[in-house]
Specification:
Length: 325
């Protein structure tokens, strides 16, 4: 063969001295092909650097070779969602699939041309999420969907449990009245944090101090919530929304009150803050990969609809919750 000749299944078949059908069956592990022939064809394919045509394979399987990924529109200013997207994309690539990104601003008259869907933090009342759930496509959500319909698979984390550990930590650091800034219950993640905080306060006989903000709250909204809590007797502030802790850190520093600060979402910003901010590491890239992998298992039939998997998260304790004079 010539050096510039593309390596196709015909090339492999010719070099191995078999027919195209035999070469194809040998590489796919199908058909009536002897083990000796399979090994011979595999050796030739490896030597020639043969790469199967993914598009043709997907066409034979009557699939699009693409999965859809829906994330909230805060993607562009949230390192969490960027990492989550990378996790989904990398896992999809391992299965020779592409990813189509869908956001809540994309209203469409027809279902997306994909084999299945991953929903990152689906919000109840989001019309795009509702329409995607109604397509009948295999669907996996990161956290449970608070609406009426349910996905075929769920990857979720024990946020309430981890928040309880964080609250125990700030209590050990001297806090007696921690406050919480959290989004509304349209997100299962935020609702879990809210429930966990209230349960902890009840168990410790502490009066709850909560300020609610929108799921996509900007810096002004978060700082206003923090100022409202600072007007009460409070000695620690837990910020749930991504990026909220770094937004309020200068405000707490200027107040001179020595309020401890922690975040429910870790990021490069919380790690590099001065002082570094204690945070819950949600491991977003791994969460995205886990969602994509569960979707592929549903598509292949190796996972049953209704499968739920727990994604482990961790607490990173840093200087922002060290007692200060």
């Amino acid at each position: 063969m010539h050096a510039d000749e593309p390596v196709t299944i015909l090339t492999v078949a010719r070099e191995a001295g078999v027919s195209k059908t035999t070469a194809s069956d040998a590489l796919r592990g199908s058909g009536r092909v002897s083990e000796r022939t399979r090994e011979q064809v595999a050796r030739v394919a490896e030597r020639l650097g043969y790469v199967p045509n993914g598009s043709a394979r997907h066409l034979r399987k009557a699939s699009t070779g693409t999965i859809g990924l829906h994330v909230p529109e805060v993607l562009t200013r949230s390192s969490y969602y960027m990492s989550f997207v990378f996790g989904v994309v990398e896992q999809a690539a391992r299965h020779d699939y592409d990813v189509t990104l869908i956001t809540s601003g994309q209203r469409r008259a027809r279902p997306p041309r994909v084999d299945g869907l991953v929903l990152g933090d689906p919000l109840s009342g989001d019309p795009v999420v509702e329409s995607l759930m109604a397509t009948g496509l295999p669907t996996v959500s990161c956290e449970r969907f608070p609406g009426d319909r349910q996905p075929d698979g769920v990857v979720w984390s024990e946020h309430a449990v981890m928040l309880g550990r964080l609250l125990d930590h700030v209590r050990d650091a001297g806090s007696t009245r921690p406050g919480l800034v959290v989004a509304g219950d349209e997100s299962d993640w935020a609702a879990s944090l809210h429930r966990g905080y209230l349960a902890w306060c009840t168990a410790k006989r502490v009066e709850p101090l909560v300020r609610r903000v929108s799921f996509d709250a900007n810096g002004d909204e978060v700082r206003a919530a923090a100022r409202a809590l600072l007007a009460t007797p409070m000695d620690a502030l837990i910020c749930a929304p991504a990026g909220a802790a770094t937004e309020v850190a200068p405000l707490l520093h200027a107040s001179g009150t020595g309020v401890l600060l922690a975040s429910c979402v870790d990021s490069a910003a919380t790690r590099l803050a001065d002082p570094p901010i204690t945070a819950i590491d949600l491991r977003p890239k791994e969460a995205g990969a886990s969602c994509a992998e569960l979707l592929f298992e549903l598509l292949s039939g190796t996972a049953e609809p209704g499968t739920e998997r727990v994604h482990p998260i961790a607490l990173a304790i840093r200087a922002s919750t060290t007692p200060r004079p």
